[in-house]
Design goal:
114 residues, mainly alpha, 77% helix
Length: 114
């Protein structure tokens, strides 16, 4: 599958999980609390790659490893390190960090192609 197909699939899935939670549908806790953590890095990196291709008019632009790692660190620090101390809605969870890393690894190995 192409990177754009993966991106679209992840976007639709992430929005469906979010809307299911918002509308009060009974979603399995593992999906409700963790699936979007797995999907957010490939979604962000995929949108970033498409934006960079458009901005630089470079159809073969791919993210560098450090850029993908930066996205993983950003989400890990913000959502697991900072926001839990500011907003009670957020809790710090090591599993989420592992899911951000797994999402970054998936993006880097499968989606970040020419």
């Amino acid at each position: 599958m192409s990177a754009n197909v993966w991106l679209l699939l992840f976007l639709v899935t992430g929005v469906a999980v979010y809307l299911g939670n918002y509308l009060g549908y009974g979603i399995l806790p593992m999906i409700q609390f963790h699936l979007n953590d797995l999907l957010i890095v490939p979604i962000t990196a995929g949108i970033t790659r498409l934006s960079m291709r458009w901005l630089f008019r470079a159809k073969n632009y791919i993210l560098k490893l450090w850029q993908t790692c930066y996205i993983v660190l950003f989400y890990s620090i913000l959502f697991e390190g900072i926001l839990p101390f500011i907003l009670p809605r957020y809790t710090s969870d090591a599993i989420d960090v592992l899911l951000y890393i797994a999402g970054g690894a998936f993006y880097w190995s499968v989606m970040n192609k020419h």
